[in-house]
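Incident log, structure service

09:12 report received: a user says their structure output differs between two submissions of the same chain.
09:20 pulled the input from the user's history:
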Amino acid sequence: MADPVRIVYFGTPEFAVPTLRELLASRHPVVAVVSQPDRPKGRGQHLQPTPTKRLAESRGVPVLQPLRLKDEAFLAAIADSRPDLGVVAAYGRILPDALLRIPRFGMINVHASLLPAYRGAAPVHRAVIAGERETGVSIMRVVTSLDAGPVFATVSTPIDDNETSPEVEARLAELGATLLVDVVEHLAAGRAAEVPQDHDRATHASKITKDEGRIDWSLPSGAIHNLVRGLQPWPMVSLWIDGGRHLVHRTRVSEERTTVEPGTIVAASRGRLAVAAGDGGVVDVLQIQPEGRRAMTAAEFLAGRHVEVGARVSAP
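09:34 re-ran on a clean worker, output below:
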């Protein structure tokens, strides 16, 4: 069996936890974990450790949280850990060339798409918003160009019609963790094969913005449903009822057809809240959250208030 490889791990959010967990359980030592700095959260705005930091510290692995990746002290600390390989999973920042050159095997990345599709910051969200029926994980070599490195391995998974981005992402995180450890074993044994991407087929998954939650109800019902699924957990699709903002957690495309203006409430009784879309279709709102309150079913929401059929739900 080939010698184990010393790994420095770059990852920050929950998506990065399964891969780190699998590496810690493998025969390959994780010599350091690099996470983005802790951020304030909650009403008290107290600093909270990142998910990868919590796991690393519970296993006694040193954690680095540099403000600048080109900082000489940080680069020296990475070099002093003598890594053979860098592994990246949703770290959240572009790695400079000076960092990429430190591990002797370079760096590899767990990317949540079937490359070259959906390169960029939000591959899962963009795939769900686009109504894709399949996605996956690619293990690729990190190069200077964004998500453009050759691919070692991929694994695919279907996207259900009603799955949200967090649900798809959680499954991809587990699939990617297993696949990554397999690739590390192949690298250690010197038998890893890299396949160049077809750059002509590349698509870009741009960062999600807050404004995307201000939905255009003239869109087809299927597109609105996909936005609701895809814009989670942030910024969420919003609608306005009686001048108040509400976040939409779950929807369904109804078989009903209508001729009323898009964005008009067409049902608001017997536990059903439904809104007209732009293609003559209707979107059933299954779970809704008034701003500052908990999420609730449509039946719970309607039981506590009078909602007028014919009212508009567009942003003021």
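09:41 both user submissions now match this output. Likely a transient worker issue. Closing.
09:42 reviewer note: The first strand starts at residue 7 and ends at 11. The CA atoms of residues 2 and 90 lie 28 Å apart.
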